[in-house]
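## retry 2 of 3
previous attempt timed out at serialization; input unchanged, resubmitting
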Amino acid sequence: MVWWRSFISLYCCRSSAPFQLFLFTVVTFGIALPVVCHRLLYSYYFMKDWYLSPMSHDFLKNNLKEAQDTVQYFQQMPPEILQSPKAQDERFPKPWLVVTVVTVQRKAEYHYLMQVVAKFHQLLQNCSHCGSNRILLCNVQEEPEHNEDARVLKKFFPTIERFKDPKDLLGFKVNSQFEKEKQDYQYCMNNTLSRFDPKYVLMVEDDALPEDDIFDVLHHLLTQRKSKTKLENALYIKLFHPERLQRYINPEPMRILEWIGVGMSVGSLLTFLYLKMFSKPEKLWQLFLYFMIYIMLLVELVGRHYFLELRRLSPQFYSLVPVTECCTQAMLFKAQSAQRALGYLDTVQCQSGFAKDTALYSFLRERHEYAFVVEPNLVRHIGLFSTLRGLTIDPKLL
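## retry succeeded, writing output
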């Protein structure tokens, strides 16, 4: 029975590497991370039963306040800043980028459309390289006057309405709301191209609030990155992917290489620091393997989303990775690729389980195309009330 005494003495000796690493692991994953991360929404340690409902309630409450502030923003806007749509068309006959906001009537008190348009307008006003960029509203409500936000904003921004004439509804019939959403998307994109002839079209849903650096990042990606030629030939560039789907353990296998790379690089640094502070173990590769797995577990359990946020320090730090399937909150198309996407969408009919995001993703393999997603996200999804799947009485952030 001498062997088990040797084993215990090895692991309980405070100066031994196994005991130090064991204690380090227990303190990290059993004490420190649960304390630090239990209120982080996208962490494995998030205490959903305790915090999800109050956090969702606070989110909606803050959203209502933002909506009220946005209404005041347009009420107090000097008339010389908000030019008429006609004046804007004359000033910028061929914009570099058009932001097309696709909108339907939503929960009126949240003013999602106004929040999104106000933020884009503020960013354009403060952007030194966005002089020709434009905002276009595309109202696809079947009775357009019922979309109250769009009705107010059409005085200030160019607006197109799919069902402006009641006759447009005659004979209009689709098999599902998913197919209507696809056709709405095509209508808005096609009219953007024909009206403005821009170089790029940014298709945005009316509950996708832009981040402060969206135009700086897009300008860097499309004009300064060495890969800009490849970007220009992509079918689309997606600017949003749900945070809950950004984990390493997910259906997207290409993240596994990134995960291993993070573990190896940071694990090497921790191994070096350990050797500087403590004695060298007999098997160095085991120490490196430990720290590699340690870091991989740490970034996954804390939440990859939170480490991606560090990239916001500079546009140069944003990454472009192969695109994932969900979703279409914000999609960037070059004019030529937009024409290809419109043609592809004509060949399919959307339905439950095959929405327009799935359709666009399916074209990549079928048509030998490629696309990218920007990380971290360049827009935030603020609409908890879904028009596609019906209004939710008590919506949650997850």
